């Protein structure tokens, strides 16, 4: 494996560890509380905490497995409903973010699914106060077209992530925060496509990618 690929893999692993730190830490805290707690009601609350934290950890691992990894359990074509379920699990059921889904194709190439998941994650994290996350993909005249829209009261995209999506960042300057955005662009470009991002604007962010099928 080339050194650049090793560096990218290390950065993606760093992001994975960072995002898992909170739910795994909550599991550890729940176990410590459970050891010393004798009140039945409090023990039930501890068990609820453990259950929720374990579910969040598993959901994130499944998401990152397909978004970042080789995803050996899938073929070269993936049912988009797999991606929909992963995005919905990441959003959660607290009602803060509403998912709109506009993908009719029965299957999409794995590389397109990876781009879709990564862009959806970027858009979801930009919805700092919640809002609407719309995901669309279809076979166009130039390849598979993926469109992600985030709309809400406050939409904030990190400048480094924007630079990585636009291709305005050197590979040596990548960080764990920007690696997934850079990978998404590379997947698009290396497969004969492109990645576009809307100008900075209050309340809305549009991400679009094309990849040859």
Task: Describe, in plain words, how this protein is organized in 3D.
Helices cover 52% and strands 20% of the residues. It has helices at 3-36, 40-67, 80-91, 110-126, 159-166, 179-190; strands at residues 77-78, 97-103, 108-109, 131-140, 143-151, 194-197, 204-211. Strand 6 (194-197) and strand 7 (204-211) form a beta hairpin. Helix 1 runs antiparallel to helix 2, helix 2 (40-67) runs antiparallel to helix 3 (80-91) and helix 5 runs parallel beside helix 6. The longest helix is centred in the first third of the chain and has 34 residues, at 3-36. The mean pLDDT is 89.
In brief:
This protein is 52% helix and 20% strand. By secondary structure, the chain is α+β, with helices and mostly antiparallel strands.
Entry keywords:
single chain, 213 residues, alpha+beta, two-stranded antiparallel sheet, 6 helices
The total strand number stands at 7
Largest sheet: 5 strands, mixed
Q: Please count the helical segments.
A: 6
SSE order, one letter for each helix or strand: HHEHEEHEEHHEE
- Please tell me how large the radius of gyration is: 18 Å
User: Mean pLDDT, nearest integer?
Assistant: 89
Class by SSE composition: alpha+beta
Low-confidence stretches: none
How are the elements arranged and paired?
Elements: H1 3-36, H2 40-67, E1 77-78, H3 80-91, E2 97-103, E3 108-109, H4 110-126, E4 131-140, E5 143-151, H5 159-166, H6 179-190, E6 194-197, E7 204-211
Parallel strand pairs: 2-4
Antiparallel strand pairs: 1-3, 4-5, 5-7, 6-7
């Amino acid at each position: 494996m080339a050194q650049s690929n090793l560096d990218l893999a290390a950065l993606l692993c760093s992001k994975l560890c960072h995002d898992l730190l909170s739910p795994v830490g909550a599991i550890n805290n729940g176990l410590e509380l459970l050891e010393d707690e004798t009140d039945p009601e409090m023990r039930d609350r501890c068990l609820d905490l453990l259950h929720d934290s374990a579910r969040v950890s598993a959901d994130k691992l499944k998401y990152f497995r397909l978004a970042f990894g080789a995803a050996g359990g899938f073929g070269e074509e993936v049912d988009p409903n797999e991606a929909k379920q992963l995005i919905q699990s990441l959003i959660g059921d607290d009602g803060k973010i509403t998912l709109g889904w506009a993908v009719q194709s029965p299957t999409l190439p794995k590389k397109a699914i990876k781009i879709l998941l990564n862009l959806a994650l970027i858009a979801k994290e930009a919805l700092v106060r919640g809002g609407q996350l719309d995901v669309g993909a279809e076979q166009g005249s130039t390849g598979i077209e993926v469109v992600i829209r985030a709309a809400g009261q406050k939409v904030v995209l990190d400048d480094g992530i924007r630079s990585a999506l636009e291709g305005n960042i050197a590979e040596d300057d990548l960080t764990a925060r920007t690696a997934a955005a850079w990978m998404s662009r590379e997947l698009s470009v290396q497969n004969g496509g492109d990645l576009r991002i809307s100008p900075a604007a209050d309340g809305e962010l549009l991400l679009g990618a094309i990849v040859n099928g």
